[in-house]
Design a protein that fits this description.
The structure is a single chain. This protein is an alpha+beta fold and about 425 residues long. Strands 5, 6, 13, 14 and 15 form a five-stranded antiparallel β-sheet that branches. The protein is elongated. The model has no long low-confidence stretch (mean pLDDT about 80).
Length: about 425
């Protein structure tokens, strides 16, 4: 007895089984993640550290080198690269494909902690560890700009409102800001005025650091009750900073306003973004000016189309929580190219099925014989989708192209079966 004998002898059960495959395949096809190319996760981890004001040479020797020395001892590292710029260093580690990324991240964390004693003590924050995919780009770029508010306030709204809400959406991996204008108090002093008063720059830095410590104040203990002292030493106003005392000379206090000025500005003045909408002659809403941008990266295996649709659906609610003078626009949307490419391949697949069925009908001239491959092709394609979903495959250009090519194999088997049946019938064998 052959494998096909039970299905031939039980046509009702075979029809119900085929209908079940068709239904399950249709449900899985709708839930398949959509992307331009298959998801390939390289076990890659990025370690970044920042030291504002440090030259690239200082970052390379004092920050990147100690990290490289410890990270190179991790097992399974196939490639280690580092780059140092003004105030920033990045070390990228790529592991073997068989290495578990979570276990590798723990080893990287341990190596960074081991290198902590060799790093500069004045780092604003410990080195940041992040899992990245070097072959992946942002799926969406959003730009925020305003004609009335300063750019540092626009960036603050992007960092505290927009990025926080977008990062919680299902399918969003992480957020990458561009043209950052993080607000900060910038203190500029005149060296000649400091020299005239006999004050060193290190003394100014020490005084500024002492003024920003939010240390515990203690308690007031009495016979009947204890009181905790609550006081905030954090100064956020530039006017108050100008009154900060940095030294005493000849019995008189020397304030920041006496040797310079404190202003509210961006933490890094060497970075920024610029937005240009288009030629003023063809676009009546044309304007250009400084802006801040934010890149949205998808999580591994996420559906790009659903993720971007969810981000767009949340924008009206986000606009209610920011000033109306801030404009949010989308400058990059990968759904347009992905939808166009996937739709084109789907149309090609549909045309292929129709042409194959038409050619079979022209040669066989029999409706019942043509109905066999006509039913087998969509059943096979949807049943394949039922296998792709649990296997972790996505609906992309390569998988759709493979399905298009596989139509020929499906039709080939159906034609061979029809030919075998007709040969037996022509030799006098009853169906």
């Amino acid at each position: 007895m052959s494998m096909s004998s039970p299905f031939i002898r039980r046509p009702v059960a075979t029809s119900l089984l085929a209908a079940a495959f068709l239904l399950v395949g249709l449900i899985c096809y709708v839930q398949l993640p959509v992307s331009a190319l298959p998801q390939v996760d390289f076990p890659t981890i990025q370690v970044s550290a920042g030291l504002p004001g440090a030259s690239p040479e200082t970052m390379a020797s004092n920050v990147a080198t100690p990290l490289e020395r410890q990270l190179s001892l991790i097992q399974g590292v196939t490639q280690l690269t580092s780059s140092s710029t003004l105030g920033s260093s990045q070390v990228v580690l790529q592991f073997e494909l068989s290495r578990n990324i979570d276990a590798a991240a723990q080893d990287v964390q341990a190596a960074v902690q081991a290198a902590g004693g060799q790093l500069p003590t004045n780092l604003p924050s410990p080195p940041n560890i992040k899992k990245v995919n070097p072959s992946e780009s942002s799926i969406m770029v959003m730009v925020m700009e305003s004609d009335t508010l300063p750019l540092i306030q626009v960036y603050d709204y992007m960092d505290s409102v927009l990025a926080q809400r977008i990062s919680r959406i299902d399918g969003v991996g992480y957020i990458q800001p561009y043209g950052g204008r993080k607000p900060a108090i910038r203190v500029q002093v005149d060296p000649r005025k400091l020299a005239a008063r006999g004050i060193q720059l290190d003394a100014v830095r020490t005084a500024i650091t002492a003024q920003t410590l939010n240390a515990p104040k203690g308690q007031i203990t009495g016979d009947f009750r204890n009181l905790t002292i609550y006081a905030d030493d954090q100064i956020t106003s530039a006017d108050v900073w100008n009154d900060v005392i940095i030294a005493y000379k000849d019995g008189a206090p020397v304030r920041i306003r006496d040797v310079g000025t404190a202003t509210l500005d961006a933490e890094n003045l060497l970075g920024g973004g610029y937005m240009t909408r288009g030629p003023a002659a063809t676009d009546p809403t044309w304007r250009d000016g400084p802006a801040v941008a934010m890149g949205v990266f998808k999580a591994p295996g996420a559906n790009v189309l659903r993720t971007i649709d969810a981000v767009k659906a949340m924008l009206p609610e986000i606009r209610k929580n920011i000033p109306s003078s801030i404009d949010i626009s989308i400058t990059k949307d990968r759904t347009q190219t992905i939808k166009a490419s996937v739709k084109d391949v789907e149309i090609t697949l549909g045309i292929t099925v129709v042409l194959v069925v038409a050619v079979i009908f022209l040669f066989l001239r029999n409706v019942r014989a043509t109905a066999i491959p006509s039913a087998v092709i969509p059943l096979s394609l949807l049943a394949t989708a039922a296998v792709m979903l649990p296997a972790g495959f996505s609906l992309d250009n390569l998988s759709l192209m493979a399905l298009t090519i596989a139509v020929g194999f499906v039709v080939d088997d159906a034609i061979v079966m029809v030919e075998a049946i007709w040969r037996r019938v022509e030799h006098g064998e009853k169906p």
